[in-house]
Design a protein that fits this description.
The protein has 570 residues and is mainly alpha-helical. Among the domains are: 58 residues, no CATH class; 68 residues, no CATH class; 66 residues. The chain contains 19 helices and 4 strands. The strands form 2 sheets. The chain has a two-stranded antiparallel ribbon with strand order 1-2. A two-stranded antiparallel ribbon has the order 3-4. Helix 14 runs parallel beside helix 18, helix 14 packs antiparallel against helix 19 and helix 15 runs antiparallel to helix 16. The chain binds a DNA duplex (12 and 13 nucleotides) through loops. Its main location: nucleus.
Length: 570
DNA sequence: GAGTTTGAAACT
DNA sequence: CAGTTTCAAACTC
């Protein structure tokens, strides 16, 4: 048992160096400093890293190692006047660190949340209560976390600088048994395709327990279970019995339901994600498949009865939190309740409120509209160019018969500048190389023309559909009118249509948000069977009825917008 | 706060 | 590798 103190392990090479670290504390019994020893297998080369206000953070060895280049290996830290904030994290000597892929460092939840007060302010990290292990075995959370005991309630603690020698022996012994003993137990799964991960969650990498749990009686729904404690689903690595810690399990849902029913902030906290997910997340419509279902549960009566009823989203929310260093979570208020439902507000994943509104075909259709307009514009401008060239030629023959190269002389914005833009845009629209001599962008040009020619915004009746526009185009517009008006008009139409689409999206998103808010309130009254993946109650009619769904070509609110006809002539 | 339960770690 | 023991956290009362 206590071989480690019988000299069974290689003698330490640099105890004197470590002794310099020991000087740091004037409180031998309970060190104020926590240290991570980045010896990387070289005993004695202790690297102390000060982490202001990052008290409970474990630093990934691979990452820290790079900092060894800039930090003195023997640097002696001055104890901070605020020892609770000045944390020295001591990394355990690693054996063959680079074998494993980079892993998110996730500490057991008990360690995570314990560093935070309920109001989110950092407080003293977890204090162990070891009595028989001298805090030199993995039983001790401090030791397992690679930190010195500091203010713990342990007895006969050797996990401090005063007992660095025995501690280091214990570390080596532990590493001898398990080289990954001090590595995070939870790692993002490097396996599986992105689709698979998306299937299981929201496109996030799913953390899972490296070794897996072996629970028998807790159903993996108590903090006895390391997976549950880390807020992750049990995985194929687990060998647990009667596991209920899989996505979709009702008992598990019950744990999470209590918290999320009262938490609307998570919607707002992740609202930004909605922007980027708004389109892509539409692919998440299909329920994620639980990959953690154990064979014995697949046929058990406790299996999911309602496949729609799932809180897998919440699970992934928790996983996100688990993936974030605790120090980064300190700003998130955390409540600590013995129930798993309040394992602390997890940073949620957010499924866009627009996820079901914007469809891929909508985007394609919108693109088609733009393409159509672009083609029409190209056609118009091409025709205009031809006409102007012919006219210029004719004019040149009349005025400068001996002139060499013909050139359109701009006379004003609506003609000359546009002529320049014609050259530029022509090649651009055709997909050819863009003219480098184009001085003004089409947008700028359009704005300039807008400024100078306000007639089309008020007086001129804009073409209400592309057909009329095309007709206008096919029949050469009268010179002096078309070139100055059609191009900005085209652009105006496109921009207006895009604006209308965005407005509609905003409106629909707001509608859905309101319904989502109602759902959150409703879930308090026990209606769980109709919660969809993004938290929208299905009993409420979907916010975007088919006729309301954002369609680049149809928006009821926009009657002036020209109808959109896809390029295929439909 | 004491006692019990639980599962990881340690050990055989 | 499997079974047993030890241990400390989680949980219950």
């Amino acid at each position: 048992m206590e071989k480690i103190e019988e000299g069974h392990f290689p003698p330490k090479k640099a105890e004197s160096e470590l002794a310099s670290v020991q000087v740091e504390t004037d409180n031998p019994a309970k060190k104020l400093a926590r240290q991570l020893d980045f010896t990387g297998g070289v005993p004695g080369q202790a690297l102390t890293v000060s982490l202001q206000e990052h008290a409970n953070q474990i630093i990934q060895p691979e990452v820290i190692k790079s900092s060894q280049l800039t930090v003195s290996m023997k640097s002696t830290q001055v104890i901070s006047p605020q020892p609770q904030l000045q944390q020295h994290i001591l990394l355990m000597p690693m054996q063959q660190a680079p074998v494993l892929p980079p892993q998110p460092l996730i500490r057991p939840l008990s360690m995570q949340s314990s560093s935070e007060a309920k109001d989110g302010t950092p407080k003293k990290p977890k204090q162990c209560n070891c009595k028989h292990s001298r805090c030199l075995k993995l039983y001790c959370e401090c030791f397992a976390s690679g930190i010195f005991c500091d203010g713990c309630n342990c007895a006969n603690c050797h996990n401090n600088v005063e007992n660095e020698a025995s501690r280091e022996e214990a570390v080596e012994a532990t590493l001898e048994r398990n080289p990954n003993a001090f590595r995070p137990k939870i790692a993002s799964s490097p396996h599986g395709t992105r689709e698979e991960r998306e299937e299981a969650g929201d496109g996030l990498v799913l953390p899972k327990h490296n070794k897996g749990c072996h629970c028998k009686k807790s159903g993996c729904l108590k903090k006895y279970c390391e997976c549950f404690q880390a807020n992750i689903l049990c995985s194929e690595n687990c060998r647990c019995m009667d596991c209920k810690n899989f996505e979709g399990n009702e008992e598990r849902q019950a744990h999470f339901h209590g918290y999320h029913a009262n938490n609307m902030a998570y919607l707002q906290q992740t609202a930004n994600v909605a922007i980027t997910d708004a389109i892509g997340s539409s692919g998440y419509g299909s329920p994620p498949v639980n990959k953690n279902r154990k064979p014995q549960e697949l046929f058990s009566g406790s299996m999911i009865k309602d496949p729609v009823h799932r809180l897998g989203q919440f699970q992934q929310e928790n996983q996100i939190k688990a993936s974030v260093p605790p120090s980064l979570l300190s700003s998130i208020p955390s409540t600590r309740v013995s129930n798993a439902a309040a394992l602390g507000p997890p940073k949620p994943t957010y499924r866009s409120l627009l996820a079901d509104i914007i469809q891929n075909h909508d985007i394609k259709e919108l693109c088609s509209v733009l393409i159509v307009y672009a083609q029409e514009a190209a056609k118009i401008l091409s025709d205009e160019k031809d006409a102007s060239l012919k006219q210029a030629k004719h004019h040149r023959k009349a005025s400068y018969p001996s002139s060499g190269v013909g050139k359109v002389v701009p006379d004003d914005c609506s003609t000359g500048i546009q002529a320049e833009s014609i050259r530029g845009d022509e090649s651009r629209l055709d997909g050819a190389d863009v003219s480098a001599e184009r001085p003004i962008s089409p947008g700028t040009l359009a704005l300039m023309c807008d400024e100078q020619d306000t007639t089309f915004t008020a007086a001129a009746a804009p073409p209400n559909d592309l057909t009329s526009l095309s007709n206008n185009t096919s029949s050469q517009p009268p010179h002096g009118q078309g070139r100055a008006e059609i191009y900005p008009e085209l652009e105006r139409i496109v921009l207006a249509q895009t604006r209308d689409c965005l407005k509609k999206l905003i409106t629909l998103g707001e509608i859905k948000e309101k319904k989502c808010s109602l759902m959150v309130r409703d879930t308090d009254s026990g209606r769980q069977n109709n919660v969809s993946s993004n938290g929208v109650v299905n009993t409420v009619p979907p916010p975007p009825p088919p006729q309301q769904k954002v369609d680049s070509g149809t928006t009821a609110a926009n009657t002036t917008r020209p109808k959109v006809h896809p390029p295929d002539g439909k």
